[in-house]
Specification:
Length: about 500
Amino acid sequence: MELRWVLYCTVVLAVVCFAQNTEARHSMHRRQTDDYDVLADAAIDDETQNDGDGGNDADEEPEVSAVILTEPTHYNVTLGDSVRLECKVSPADGTVVQWTKNGTMYFFGTMKTQDQHATSYTQNQLISIPANSTDLLIKNVTIADSDTYKCEVLQTNRVTVEHTLNIQEKPKIIKFSASNNGEVVEGSNLMLTCVVGGSPPPQIIWSRDTGNGNERLQEKDGEFSINSLHIKNVKASDAGKYYCYAFNGVGNKQAEITIVVKSKPHVHVPKAIINSAVNVEAVLQCSVHDAAPAHIRWYKDGSLIEDTSSQFTVSTNGHHSNLTVTPTSDQDFGTFTCEADNDLGKHNRSIELVQEPVVEGLDVDGPKLTWTIHSHQPLEQIELQLRQMSAEGQWKTINVPLPDIRTHEYEIIYPLSEQDLEPGKYEATVKVKNEKSWSQHTPPAFVDIEAQPQLIQHASVYRGNSGNSIRPTILSAISTTLMYLLVRML
């Protein structure tokens, strides 16, 4: 039974092997037949082509390669303008060109009689090929259009020209700012920042308003960086308008900012001493400079003057304040103080209200001295004191005549030419006495006394060696001659 089963399997295996061998021979035959057919067809095509040429190889015209006549160019174009990138080809008819921007295709085609919009590749109707050319036209250029552009002729011997497009933009000031919004405390630091844009990148000039107009800031005024200015230890005088001026050769732009310096008050009084009299009204003035809003108070001899006082009247308007005083007795004269304070500190100045004369404005006017006297009381004496500086001598006192007209303000002009003074430089000061007291000495003034020219006596042409004049002898001879002639005629 087992032998029969083995025999059966052997017969089946033999049949399968025979069938596979037969199929392989048929497949190989089919492939050989197909290859022979392809080769035969190719041979027939070659023969047909050769027969068609018919021996005209000598008459065939060689292919003409196009050339680009345009030279590489660098284009500088202002933002928003149009630019035409040239690509002049010869021969142009039928020549296929391709425009690319930094490797990205913009246009592919030939020259036509109408404008061709390069929408196939860029989706931008502002880019086109003008009629009868292969140039590239870009309208309303933007900063993104700055790049390299290549025009290429598509042929066996490819030729190209590459252009560079630079978009120029006028300066613009994006932001001009100051630390703490432009309000700084005296003694702190200030940072000004001016962010600008444009192509090419703009340069910055810093300036500010001063008493002499707009002045450019220098290295001594602060520390400069690319787009900022750093001012250390800010002073009250640093307040005002600052300017950022940007320029790049395409255009310019300017912006301004106002800086406020907050500081403790600085009180100023126009007159530190004022003359008045009993029942004569006097107005004392003060002003507050270079400060944030401040509160102003008045004091007399250290005591606060209340706003409700009937004897004194305080009038304050902004940074200016007046105190009106009408003395009713000698006790109402004294030291009055104007004080101002704010969150940063306080400051004061004092004014003396007196009954003695007040002398001011001593000045030199050529050979004359001038000064002003304030006194509501009658004047009793005016003294001018002089001292020659080179000799370091004693003071010389000159009593100046009193004015003829009585008033409370006197303008004195005193000529020094009337005094017998040696030539040289003199120091001069004045003090005045009224019925109450002597005034203080004025600050000195300095005057130059020049030497007076001497008269020169000219020699007479009628003097002889003996020094006697010969003129009488001549006149006598002439008289004698005339008398003789007169007698003869009679």
